[in-house]
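Example 3.2
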Amino acid sequence: MRVFKVGVLSLLMCLGFQACKSQPDPGPDNPEPEGFIRGADLSFLPEIEASGLQFKNQKGEIQDALSIFADAGCNTVRVRLWNNPSTPHSGMAEVLAFSQSIKAKGMKVWLDLHYSDSWADPGTQTKPAAWEGLTTAQLKDSVYAFTLKAIDLIQPEYVQIGNEINGGMLWNEGKVQNAVAFTDLLKSGTLAARQSNTKPQVMIHYAGISGADWFFDLLSKNQVDYDMIGISYYPLWHGKDLDSLSRTLNRLAITYHHPIVIAETAYPFSLGYADKTQNFIGQSDQILPAYPATPEGQEAFLRKIRTLVAQTTSGMGFCYWAPDWVAFKGENATNGSVGENLALFDFSFQGLRALGVYEK
């Protein structure tokens, strides 16, 4: 996911007690498999902690964020890695140190390789500046070398070969329309993972459900080797039909014989703002009517996602995107968080009830 500016502020009132109630956790009829991922993408956390901000747990006690998530039951932390970012954030040194801290708390590391110096997503897959001018063959070598180095240093349990690669990666050479070049680049990354010391589970990450069948069929036809399917799901961008989401997840898992994960999702606890930076979501028509923008609605949505994945054939977990991205630059910041109302902490940085969804 990356930053998009949306809408104007409006308020959504809870439409009734039943809409606010939490959905049931998976039970005996849909047990979660061993290794079910209860994940959080905390890629912003090193930058936020460096600012001096202090998080509070649900009891209002000051506690470091990794401990809050570990205590809640989170078992996996997703971390993005950029090749040569303009700041130290999301660079190799920071990600290595952060990953060591994650493991020290007893959680697994899910490494999200963007193959870019900044955000990569369906609309932008800009190759690293150092790779400009390389031939496709040289790009394949670069992908292999960078992937192998990152995995051997960081030793993740899971690795994504690209981030939301609907349109391919390393444009223009690796655009999805250039199917052979694109899948060859993917295969260079997956080969590096197979030949690394750690040998993590390899995930391919697609944003949304529209076009997903065609995309994973392309990978199958070109014999891309991977272990897991990752799907982003945000109602604003990927539709408000949870039944369609469920059907697509089941179809993908059954057709391509891979475990499937909701690799990114998020939902508002408020339509308000805590800084002067425009948010992703600020209007009631951008969310699901059954799940209002309240702490209760946020929790209910996330419980529904967890249950939906658990009920999916080969469903293997979920990951909440940027639950730590509070308005850490202050209430007057115009370059702060565009998703503070999607965090799992309120505007005073106290943990919200949705953290309870991580419980095993």
